[in-house]
Design a protein that fits this description.
The protein has 353 residues and is α/β, with parallel strands linked by helices. The protein contains 13 helices and 13 strands.
Length: 353
């Protein structure tokens, strides 16, 4: 059967998600807070009249307008929705010529490389600076000049390091690039930082966001903002009805109640320095500053996987990043949860050091 599939696919490994049943789940950068009961009832009332016998609105116009209104997106820009940010990344890469190059710093979001490799594109990764995880601007600029990548991905804040790259370095990359520059702002709610205001100044700039980290991970909804001429091309290959009716209705309802998510985001941001400071009091642990809803931390040499399993055996699931090597050697990543979940994590970590 192997002769049926492309070599790029055969060489890949599937993206695996760890079973979190029965564990405190701090591995996937999710919002740990649920909705209050009265809001759930209002949501269920709204769902009651959803016409499941009909196809969904192919343009998701009501939801798109809600996103533009809440996030103050100017009408000169278009918004395209995807089944999670993953679909938007996939659409961007599917639209490229077969010999195109794609550039991103490393470490970064794994789906940039996963989808590029799947499509047989020339994926280029430039290591971040050791210590502060900022962009290696000279290396990025040199690679841009040499390969002229069709798409450059810059996550802001970056996953899995959690930091915000230098704004001046990012602007220089946007100015130099002849291809598209995609600023992935999945964690923007926790950073109070965005490049949306830069959209009018750059024809090649796209802003990509998701509602997953905000607290709607189960809906699988992402969106990209950019000039109509770019979005028009992406819409040509977007599958019709890619956002189902229940997702459209639920996301629209939730975003119109965004004050709740603002409060929950604030709670997470208040817990972040608490966890950071506690980590840095533990022997052999180095926690890195984060502007996201997670913290990357370094463990003693060759101990990351042992510590990860020991924490899991105590009922807490975090993410083992050490197998990726490079700057992530000996590193683990923990999502900021509720105060009691964070305390359980710190106690579990302390017990295995």
């Amino acid at each position: 059967m192997s002769s049926i599939f492309r070599q790029e696919v055969l060489a890949m490994s599937a993206y695996k998600v760890t079973n979190a049943q029965g564990l405190i789940k701090l591995d996937a950068m999710e919002n740990p807070y649920n909705w209050p009961e009265d809001l759930k009832l209002d949501w269920l009332t709204a769902l009651k009249d959803c016409a499941l016998n009909r196809y969904p609105d192919p343009e998701a116009l009501e939801l798109t307008q809600t996103i533009k209104r809440i996030y103050h997106i100017d009408d000169q820009f278009e918004v395209m929705l995807g089944n999670g940010s993953d679909e938007i990344i996939q659409l961007l890469l599917m639209a490229l010529p077969s010999d195109a190059s794609v550039l991103a710093p490393a470490p970064g979001f794994v789906m940039y490389k996963q989808l590029s490799d799947c499509l047989g594109l020339n994926y280029l990764s430039i290591p971040l600076q050791a210590g502060n995880f900022d962009l290696d601007l000279p290396a990025m600029l040199e690679t841009i000049q040499r390969y002229q990548p069709s798409v450059i991905f810059l996550a802001y804040p970056n996953n899995p390091t959690g930091n915000l790259f230098s704004q001046s370095a990012m602007l220089e990359i946007i100015n130099v690039a002849k291809g598209l520059v995609v600023i992935d702002e999945a964690y923007a709610p926790f950073a109070d930082a965005s490049f949306i205001d830069a959209l009018p100044d750059h024809d090649n700039l796209l802003i990509m966001r998701t509602v997953s980290k905000l607290g709607l991970a189960g809906l699988r909804l992402g969106y990209v903002i950019g000039r109509p001429a770019i979005i028009e091309q992406l819409n040509k290959i977007r599958l019709p009805y890619n956002i189902n009716s229940l997702t459209q209705l639920s996301a629209n309802f939730a975003l119109n109640n965004h004050a709740l998510f603002d409060q929950q985001t604030q709670k997470i941001c208040q817990e972040r320095p608490v966890v950071f400071n506690q980590l840095n009091t533990l022997p052999g642990i180095i926690a890195y500053p984060s502007a996201a809803n997670f913290i990357l931390f370094k463990t003693p040499t060759d101990q990351a996987s042992r510590i990860f399993l020991a924490i899991k055996h105590q009922g807490v699931l975090i993410k083992d990043m050490s197998a990726q090597g490079g700057l992530l050697s000996d590193c683990l990543r923990v999502t900021i949860g509720k105060p009691e979940e964070n305390l359980a994590f710190i106690m579990a970590l302390r017990n295995c050091l």
